[in-house]
Write a structure and sequence with these properties.
This protein is of the alpha+beta class. The protein has four domains: 221 residues, no CATH class; 79 residues, no CATH class; 72 residues, no CATH class; 95 residues, no CATH class. It has 18 helices and seven strands. The strands form two sheets. Strands 1, 2, 3, 5 and 6 form a five-stranded antiparallel beta sheet that branches. The chain has a two-stranded antiparallel ribbon with strand order 4-7. β5 and β6 form a beta hairpin. The longest helix has 18 residues. The chain is elongated and about 100 Å long. The termini are far apart.
């Protein structure tokens, strides 16, 4: 930068600092600042706020409302000026980092061959590492640094509505700051990084909030950032009955964010749970099933159902769009295939069938229910203790041949878990009245044989009548009703 240009920038900084750092209330001060910004330039400028503000990722228009006092006054003035002159304003959190190379001192250790070598103890406790050396950051001053360096890291950028944006071409430098310094006051963090026996690196960090002022002619342009949390919240609280242009843009940004987060969404995290839930609400409110279908696809809904949407959520979609059965049927069938819970699969069938009663397409839903129920019973997932009641009900609805030929082979192939088998045998014993006597006896007998076959004939532990490992005796007591569960 030329000397002449530097002088102009410094003069601008002085004028701005004196008039706009707090409340630029006088007409003269406001006019001076306005004249400066009216001059054509591509330079991005940044005003440093007095306080560091953390902008919530979900609250629409809440970012600027968090500003108070002098920060609020400065923001309000620049907002009015921006509307008059046409430049864009963005609230930005940055981390200003100053580093300095330091000479260090170490404790001397013993001499002699028994120590392996001569010299000084560079790491007495063997725990030196980044931010964890024998030296503490408070013991050093940046004024004593051999060489200093600084960097500015942009942490987050939001527009004046609080929506996250990205500024790919932004290269923020101290020359962009127009009202003070990023490193004013005490550092928010001090760290010391040990490098070798004679030197280390001292690091001071300041967290700051700045107002970016970007002229229309600047090469720095904003693009939509990761709006997932923001869009979910904004769309959920809008309560609109039809989608506006802005809401369509938010939905598009939401889908993009989900696509970019494919890896984390594949794990079925809480973020994707909220996203799918919002898509259901929007589809019903806007009477547009495609919203649910789009979000469900990018969130891997069919393969991660258990973490993303419960059976009632799917049923609510069907109730809103019974005419879209062919599109929804494909999704529901994949959910039945991929869900890891037998209870969830069964509940989905029951709720969809209940929602279809009295509707025009009930016959198609009933036929689908029958096919999917057969698929579930022929492809059981790993059974859990809380599914004992459900499986007992299945046994009661079918004859002994179904149990022996369809259910039992699957049960035998599953990992042997006493926490499932004992309650299951007990439940069968209690439900004899609902099963013919001969069939109930055979079902229980087959289950007991399986448990005994899976149990070691020579347990290594001393005999204990209540020990679960003493399976045969415990089963006998269980069937006689002498064991309390």
């Amino acid at each position: 930068m030329s000397t002449k240009a530097t002088t102009k920038v410094d003069a601008f900084k002085d004028a701005f600092y004196q008039t706009a750092r707090n409340t630029p209330s006088s007409q003269k001060a406001q006019q001076e600042i306005k004249q400066v910004f009216m001059k054509p330039t591509k330079l991005v400028r940044a005003c440093v706020f007095q306080e560091h503000h953390k902008f919530p990722a979900t609250e629409a228009a809440a970012a600027s409302k968090l500003l108070t006092g002098g920060d609020r006054a400065l923001f309000t003035f620049m907002q009015v000026l921006g509307k008059q002159l046409g430049f864009k304003l963005y609230l930005t959190n940055v981390c200003y980092k100053v580093t300095g190379d330091m000479m260090t001192e170490h404790r001397q250790r013993g001499y002699g061959y028994r120590y392996g070598d001569y010299g000084f103890d560079y790491d007495v406790f063997g725990d030196d590492g980044p931010g964890n050396s024998d030296e503490e950051a408070e013991n050093y001053s940046m004024e004593d640094a051999e060489e200093e360096g600084y960097s500015i890291e942009v942490k987050a950028v939001v527009d004046l509505d609080g929506m996250p944006v990205s500024l790919p071409k932004l290269d923020l430098d101290e020359a962009n700051i127009v009202n003070g310094k990023l490193d004013s006051g005490k550092p928010d963090q001090k760290k010391f990084y040990y490098e070798d026996g004679h030197c280390g690196e001292l690091v001071h960090l300041w967290n700051r909030t700045v107002l970016l002022i970007i002229p229309i002619t600047s090469d720095v342009k904003a693009v939509t950032g990761d709006v997932l949390h923001y869009a979910c919240h904004a769309l959920q609280v809008s309560q609109s009955r039809s989608s506006s242009d802005k809401e369509k843009q938010l939905l598009a940004g939401l889908v993009r964010s989900c696509t970019n987060r494919a890896a984390s969404l594949a794990s079925g995290d809480q973020t994707s749970y909220g996203t799918v839930k919002v898509s259901v609400e929007l589809s019903i409110r806007w009477k547009d099933v495609s919203t649910f279908l789009r979000v469900g696809q990018v969130c891997n809904l069919t393969t991660h159902t258990d973490a993303l949407l419960d059976p009632e959520g799917f049923a609510s979609v069907y109730r809103a769009f019974p005419a879209q059965w062919e599109s929804l049927k494909e999704i529901f069938s994949k959910v039945v295939e991929h869900s890891s819970s037998n209870l969830t699969r069964g509940a989905l069938l029951e709720k969809i069938s209940a929602a279809a009663k009295g509707k025009k397409g009930v016959a198609a839903v009933t036929a689908w229910h029958k096919i999917q129920n057969g698929f579930i019973l022929s492809n059981l997932k790993l059974l859990q203790p809380d599914e004992v009641e459900w499986l007992t009900g299945v046994v009661k609805k079918h004859d002994i041949n179904f149990f022996r030929d369809i259910l039992l082979p699957q049960l035998r192939n599953q990992p042997h878990e006493k926490k499932f088998w004992f309650p299951f045998i007990k439940a069968l014993n209690w439900e004899k009245a609902g099963i013919s006597t001969l069939e109930a006896t055979e079902v229980i007998s087959l289950c007991v044989r399986h448990v005994v076959d899976k149990t070691s004939a020579y347990p290594q532990k001393p005999y204990d009548p209540r020990d679960e490992d003493d399976v045969p005796k415990l089963l006998c007591r269980l069937l006689r009703g002498k064991v309390q569960w």
